[in-house]
Amino acid sequence: MVWKEASTFLSRRPRADGLRRRKKRIIEVFDKVRASEDWSVPESTGYQYAWISGDWSPIHLIQQSARLFGHRAPIAHGMWAAACCVAQWESLTGQTAAKVEAMFTRPIYLPAKAKFLLIAEPPRGRLVLENAQTGKLHLMVSVAPR
User: What would the DSSP string read from start to end of 79-123?
Assistant: First the structure.
């Protein structure tokens, strides 16, 4: 098997009891950060990824089309973000990823400043991509080596 995927699509709705959810940084539950790096994500990321992947979804390209889908600006493609995290893990550890699981929590609006965090020690990787200014989580990735 080369590819196996399960997708779950969520929508935001108010809670039935009218209460607001308590927000907690997920990163707090992990051990200390092993490595971190600040990334600058340019506005052209959507176009660059589209050329490579063939995914010309309008939410990744320009503000006007992204707004039609409820976003304030174009968003980085989730698979682009996951691939960048895995590439960074491979560069830091010298290992090749064999199994990758990603959990996307919020979009990366372009342009953006993001912070990559390596949480778990090799051989497995627990990777986090968060907003560099707010610390809000964009993505969590688990990586297992070959």
Answer: HHHHHHHHHHHHHHH---EEEEEEEE-S--BSSEEEEEEE-SPTT
Residue for token pair 């490595």: 35
For 133, which DSSP code?
A: T
| Contact between 134 and 118 (Cβ < 8 Å) | no
SS3 51: helix
This prediction has a pTM of 0.79
pLDDT tens digits along 71-99:
999 999 999 999 999 999 999 888 899 89
40 sits in which H/E element: strand 35-41
Q: Residue 64 in contact with residue 13, Cβ under 8 Å?
A: no
Domains, the chain, ordered by start: 29-43+75-145 (3.10.129.10)
Closest Cα to residue 60, out of 41, 84, 43, 83? 43
